[in-house]
Structure formats: C-alpha cells, structure tokens
Amino acid sequence: MDALLPPETCHSMAELRVQIDALDVELIALLVARSHYIDRAVDLKKAEGLPARITDRVAEVLGKVSATATAKGLDPELARKLWAELIEWSIQREIRELGA
User: Fold this and answer.
1) Domain 7-98 grouped into CATH 2.40.50.140
2) For the chain, N or C: smaller number of CB within 10 Å?
3) pLDDT tens digits along 45-59
C-alpha cells in the first residue's frame, strides 16, 4: 500500500475517504492473518486437549488490548468491545471444529 496521507493534509472528504478505505483494507488483511492463527489454534488445542474457550486467556487478551489502546490513544472501551466480539467469533469458530 502507498503511504497514507496525514489526516490534516486531506483537504476534502473524498480525499479523506480514500485514506480511510485504504486503512480498512489493511485492517481486513490483519484480521485474515489473525484468523489463520485461530485455524492453527484449533489444531494445537486438539493435540493438547484444550477447550475452545479458555476464560483466563480471554481476560488476559482483553486486558492487553485495553492497555495497548490506552497507551496508543484509543478509547479502551471501544477496543475491548471490538476484541470481545472478535474473540467470541473466534471461539465459536473453534467450537465448530472442537466441539463444546
């Protein structure tokens, strides 16, 4: 991807939207990469006899996400909500493969 323009250099909504759309493409690519790790988690959890939902790990991830969001200047509550949804989707995907 070409380098993004800084937001303050965008002089129209059309120009700004191009930048946002480019970021959305990057975010999707990262989510695809993350989903490949979830696929691998299914294999490893099968081999290690682990369940799809590991409550302590969910809490750990949400804590890290909240802290990272705070450090980077993103609303930590937004980050927690987004990741909670992402994690639940991932767990449901694992459950389909592993069973409850």
Assistant:
1) no
2) C
3) 999 999 999 999 999
